Amino acid sequence: MLAGGTGAPFKMLDKALGPSLGQCCGGRVKLMLERYDKADAAAIAALAAAERIGVMATVAAATSGRLNREIAEIDDSMFGRSNFARLPDGRIIEKFGSTATPLYLFGAGHVGRSLALALAPLPFFVTWIDPRPNAFPPHVPGNSRCLSEIEPVRQIADAPDGTFVAIMTHSHALDLDIAAAALQRRRFPYIGLIGSDTKRARFVGALRTLGLSRDDVDRLICPIGLTGTHDKAPAAIAASIAAQLLIVRGNLSSARVLATKISETAADDARHG
Predict the structure, then answer these.
(1) What's the mean pLDDT in 181-193?
(2) Which domain holds residue 86?
(3) How far is CA 163 from the centre of its chain?
(4) Per-residue pLDDT averaged across 207-234, rounded?
(5) Structural domain contains residue 29
């Protein structure tokens, strides 16, 4: 398709994984191959910028030997279980990207830097906070925004509902203040604190002294990360934390899907008496 530069601007392939490709897992795969050249660079750059913001849909049509793709309104009823659909008029509509979970990362030390890198390809939008001047590395991942020389605790009030909070600053006193502020708001599904079992025990006592209930304190995840790993290298700790964040994110998504199905079933039962 690239070498010829003529003919249809896209090609559809529909393959059975077993007989066609020698795979043993079964099922089918549908592929769409698209041809673009340098004349399409500006349009593709605009689509890439839109995808970085979050979930987007495009509608494409072949005209004059080219595949013209434009941003479209997202209508989930068009897709079903797939992110691809062909409209009755022949146009192709696709959904790209994923909804990024907001994550407030407090601390730009060794583990904080490793965690920011670990989260770079994952579905999180990181607000990275450290009050120290020049705390951040010269280059940061594209899904991160850095806030420095500010009061970290005050940033908790601005965090959207559903934000994940990871605390690993240079100061235990600051860690405590941030953890208390986050737990008191009761609207963050994940609040993780770096530290040992000893640090957790001390923080539990301090948080109870500050007036937090036992239920509030029990929501604090400390030590942070998966408990089955023992490697203390910053990159290993970051990988453990990233895995835990993905597990929590997945569990929340499954719970929302179940709640939606229950709601839809209840509404359907009500309609039919």
Answers:
(1) 97
(2) 10-96
(3) 11
(4) 94
(5) yes
